[in-house]
Design brief:
The chain is of the alpha+beta class. It is built from 3 helices and 19 strands. Strands 1, 2, 3, 6, 11, 12, 16, 18 and 19 form a 9-stranded mixed β-sheet that branches. A 4-stranded antiparallel β-sheet has the order 5-4-7-8, with no helix packed on it. The longest helix is centred in the first third of the chain and has 36 residues.
Amino acid sequence: MKRLSVFHTTTRVRSFRAACATSLPIRQGVIFLLNLCLCASCVVDYDVDTSKIIEKNRLVVNSILNPSQPLKIRFHTVDRRDDGSYGCNAAVDVRVRLTANGSVVYEGTCADTVLCLDVRPAANVLYRIEAGKEGYDAIWAETVVPEAVTCSAHVRKSSGSRGETAIACLYDFAGFGREQQAALYISAYDQKVIMEWDEKTWEYIVIDSVWVEVTDLYSRNFFIDAFNRIGGMPLLHEDVGSLYFENFMRIRAENIPRLDTLAFAEAGRRIRIITAGTDYDSYVRTSYEQSFYHSMMAGSSADVNAMFYQPTRIYSNINGGLGIFAGTNEIVISD
């Protein structure tokens, strides 16, 4: 019978460990060199030839239907230039037919680039636009204005890690669960005072004030979509955490019934809650994604960010043309 030598087995194990310890730095060096080559290859500038694809000149229609505002529709054209590029131009003399649930709201030729009507869109109404201009394909689009989701709110001042913070609490949500409600978009605004130096009194005087959108909205609520969430910031307040949302907070329609209280900061002095229809929701999401990836291509880190660049096609529901024809509804809460 063959005997097992414990001594020789231990020696082999030690030899194997020593070999692994020697090869580990070599593996790390190889991985480092491969990563270096990968990053260096992205710094090379390549000359891209002009695209051989020729697109049609198209009519562009942009209109966001909102019951809080009179109806307004903007017309432009996208035309091919002599050098092969494309440019956007104001469009006039556009033939327009606008209907609401089949009834004609407006029919005629718009002599200006903006069609302004003394009509406010209504909720749960199907709006259809048909437009045409000589030399361009006729276009059409349909959309429905959703019912507004409502809620109550109060704003309180609280001391946090960065001083006094305005925290808004939204609660008692109602009016949800209706058709055409795709999401809620919550944004906040603060009042900015415009001052001017008066040489007579030798002091600054207030000449005007404007509402400015709050760019960083902090919240730790689980039901807020994370696609525009930014992390890595210091804790603002224990009630809202350290993660913030850029420009707005989006809540999908199926999550609205699950909301109890939504707390966020900085609240500002005006809160705008938009109930988005399907078309508006798709348009905002794709527009944000495109602007986000576009910002990655700017600055000193553009060469590295190019590895992760994903161009996004901005949503459009204009058949035969470009633009957006979408319905929204909103409530505004002010202090």
